[in-house]
Design brief:
Elements lengths: L34 E2 L7 E2 L4 E2 L5 E2 L28 E8 L2 E10 L5 E8 L16 E4 L8 E7 L5 E8 L2
């Protein structure tokens, strides 16, 4: 008897018992994750969640259970392997364009240093409105001119404006 079973082989009892105990649709979506349909544990159905051949996970929205308290949504463990100062980060993007980046540096001892949240720069400010209320925007400037950081705020006239929060030196 072999000590392990290769991934391409499956065990089936000689009697055939248990064979075809799970049923599902006549067709499926390529790379979709199957999920149970009903509570029998024997019927599966297709889903909109997919994992492609490069292990890229595609999902819809993420919902956190009500009254969950403090939740860690994403965690990137850092070991002692990365060199001191090596960037450890992830970004939030829309249509392939990074909007927000959470960044730190490895300390080569299994932890991180220099933690920061970075807003991705815009070349022009959009018109201030309720849509941007409370949002921050970095305005990069050319050579010899300091960058500026703005926040969209409502003023006493109940209109919105970009208020300069900081300027580089």
């Amino acid at each position: 008897m072999p000590s392990h079973i290769p991934d391409s082989n499956f065990l089936v009892p000689a009697s055939g018992a248990g064979a075809a105990s799970v049923s599902g649709p006549a067709s499926s979506t390529d790379n979709a994750i199957a999920r149970y349909d009903s509570t029998t544990g024997k019927i599966i159905q297709d889903s909109d969640i997919t994992i492609d051949d490069t292990n890229r996970l595609t999902i819809g929205s993420i919902e956190i259970e009500a009254d969950s308290g403090e939740v860690t949504l994403v965690d990137m463990p850092v070991t002692a392997t990365p060199a001191d100062g090596a960037e450890q980060s992830y970004s939030f993007a829309i249509d392939g364009i990074n909007i927000l980046k959470l960044r730190s540096e490895a300390d080569s001892a299994g932890s991180i240093k220099n933690k920061m949240m970075m807003l991705v720069q815009e070349d022009t400010k959009p018109t201030a409105s309720a849509y941007y209320h409370g949002g921050f925007l970095l305005e990069p400037c050319g050579a010899g001119v300091a960058d500026k950081l703005y926040c969209c705020m409502k003023n006493s006239a109940d209109t919105y404006e970009w208020v300069q929060v900081a300027i580089g030196s």
